[in-house]
Amino acid sequence: MADKTVTVRLVRSAVASVKKDQTLTCRAMGLRKIGDTSVLPDNPSVRGMIFKVKHLVEVEEN
Q1: Which whole-number Å values give the CA distances from 54 to 1, 2, 3, 49, in the listed order?
Q2: pTM
């Protein structure tokens, strides 16, 4: 059985008017520009990163 994944897409800028740690969290998930997507494993650490920047991203569970 394949591992579960989540697709995360950056929909708002992670540069303007957000804290530095939120910008770095987006970078750690592989999101640099608006519209960038990353497919990440669905685990507690990734879920925590998504929660931290939930106002900047859209998430689709695979």
Answers
A1: 29, 26, 23, 8
A2: 0.90
